[in-house]
Amino acid sequence: MSGFRARNQVAIAGYAQSPIVRHASQSLGTLAVETARQAIADAGLEVEAIDGFVGASLLPTAGGHRVEDGVSVVSPNWLAQHLGTKPQYVAGFAGVGQIPGSVAMAVNAVASGAADYVLVHRALHNPPGRYHANPLTEVGGDQQWTAPQGYFGPLAMIALPYNEYLQRFGARREAMAAVVIEARKNGARIPWSYWHDKPLTAEEYLEAPTLFDPVCRYDCDIPVDGVAAFVFTSAERARDMPHRPVYVGGYGMSAVTRPRLPLHWPLDDIMEGGAHVARNLWAQARIGPGDVDLPQVYDGFSPFVWFWLEALGFCPTGEAHRYVAEGGIDSDRPDALPALSGGGALGNGRMHGVPQMLECYLQLSQRAGGRQRDRATVGVACHASPHYGGAVVYSAEPL
Amino acid sequence: MTNARPVPVPDERSAPFWTAAANHVLTLARCSHCHSYSLPPGAVCAQCGTTEPAFVFEPVDSRGTVRSWTVVRQSFLPGFDDDLPFVLVDVELDVQAELRMIGRLLDGVDVPLQVGDVVDVAFEDLAPGVSVPAFALVR
Q1: d(Cα A278, Cα A386) in Å, to the nearest integer?
Q2: Residue A58's CATH number
Q3: pLDDT one-digit tens code per residue, A317-333
Q4: A267-285 and A303-311 helices cross at what angle (nearest 10)?
Q5: Cys-Cys link to A73, which of A57, A149, A227, B107 (CB 3.0-4.6 A)?
Q6: How far apart are the first and last CA of chain B?
């Protein structure tokens, strides 16, 4: 890599976030159009000014649900079409770390001059019926190596590396209560969250039966309907816009290097991928974990919090369970990391990496209202597994 | 009504595996170029990168060690409802470093497990001519 030239050159200039609900009273497409219009207006722009659209339209379910653009997913193309614009640049991110992946594409588009104002959106849908249940009776393709044997769905996927971690480092699942309680505490303070005013106690967490040992229901984010949209533009233009710009310092994406059985995520793969993300992230942004006062780790499944804290160097390998259990990520303690201050996916609902990105934007632009933190200068927003996702560095001032 | 467990649909890359499995023999796909095993066998050899692996399925030592496990108490595949709860084990086969296979552990949910426990492949018969690999502890 010959040097990341987009560092500090691109900024977020506005946003909008819909309420996060179990099932919206309107279609996902109309919710996306309305949220996009709000985000564009928030940036002080007319819809016609948006000349770039980037997003990802994965429906993250193992169930046999039908994928239909504008109904169960909203692609960037669908959104541009229904906003009635004629963008120069429309692109979809097809990987697993959809939020950092989309942000990277938007940053590249702005920095290269392919587009001046890029709207990044994510629309998540909770289809009717059981989210992951699948009545399939015959299995072809790669899943024939796992599903007939009983290995199927994302809970089994995360349970294996989670238990591998517990066994390797002598950790106990009771230590995970601190992660989930912290996410729900912060989510309970957020008006648009599904879990608004609904914190979780340690007793509730520990009494919940396991579904795929050691995973219980509270270790999983809840499927929801919700849309978020962000406007990206050049740092230069952003400085003349209504809100304080939040700069992109760099991003790191994982590269999966070893073919595996479907949904097989061994702990070593996760941590090797995380090391790769961290190397690229810190190299692009030219900072290290010690410079970050607003890390937002991904938590769609609670063990990811431990994995990300270790992968990015916020605590030593094998220590995250102890670090978190001892209050290391408490957003109310000045000496702790506010690693889930935005509530994460566990505290908001299954919005993928949106809560992490949104918290970075709100805090760094001084728009967090009553939740505004005294010290928020450099943030990191993570998404997905360290080996199948990525992270973005944001800052209140150019780094 | 009881739902049936899903059965594999053999294809040109997997048919010899399932034929051998029906006779309770574990085979693995071996690359004709670098002679390493791949699971699943893909279009490109995972070890040497050849685009013409011409995989040959060979019977292998079916022992391995447990790397991780989970107890499944709620399956997303209704065909497993009658088997709940059951144990899934993530096994590294002895035949090649990092060659991992996942399957049910047929010893039940009450046996204590540790990383490194030795297992051997056992087969479950799902239908006439259809058997899938699982594991059993070697004591």
Answers
A1: 9
A2: 3.40.47.10
A3: 999 999 999 999 999 99
A4: 50
A5: A57
A6: 38
For the beta carbon of residue B22, count every other beta carbon within 10 angstroms.
17
pLDDT tens, residue by residue, A40-51:
999 999 999 999
Q: What is the DSSP letter of B40?
A: S
Phi, psi values for residue A118, rounded to 5°: -110, 130
In a domain, A213, yes or no: no
Of the candidates B63, B66, B51, B60, the one whose C-alpha atom is nearest the C-alpha of residue B28 is: B60
Strands B27-30 and B7-8: unpaired
- On whether both B135 and B91 belong to a single domain, the answer is yes
Strand order in the sheet with B27-30: B37-38, B27-30, B56-59
Q: Nearest Cα to A354, choosing from A20, A11, A13, A40? A: A20
- By C-alpha distance, the chain A residue nearest B67 is A164
Residues A53, A204: Cα–Cα separation, whole Å: 42
Range of the domain at A57: 10-129+221-395
Give the CATH number for residue B112. 2.40.50
Q: Classify residue A193: in a domain, yes or no.
A: no
- Whether residue A142 lies inside any domain: the answer is no
* Residues of chain B falling short of pLDDT 70: 1-2
Upper half-sphere CA count for residue A99 (Cβ side, 13 Å): 31
Find chain B residues with C-beta within 8 A of A138's C-beta. 6-9
| Minimum-distance CB partner of A213 among B10, B71, B134 | B71
Assigned token pair, B31: 């690359």
The residues in A 99-128 lying below 8 A from B, measured between CB atoms, are none
What domain range is B109 assigned to? 61-139
Task: Output DSSP code: residue B132.
Answer: E
Q: What is the pTM of this model?
A: 0.97
Beta-ladder partners of B132: B124
Whether B9 and A266 lie within 8 Å, measured CB to CB: no
Structure confidence by residue, pLDDT tens digits, A303-361:
999 999 999 999 999 999 999 999 999 999 999 999 999 999 999 999 999 999 999 99
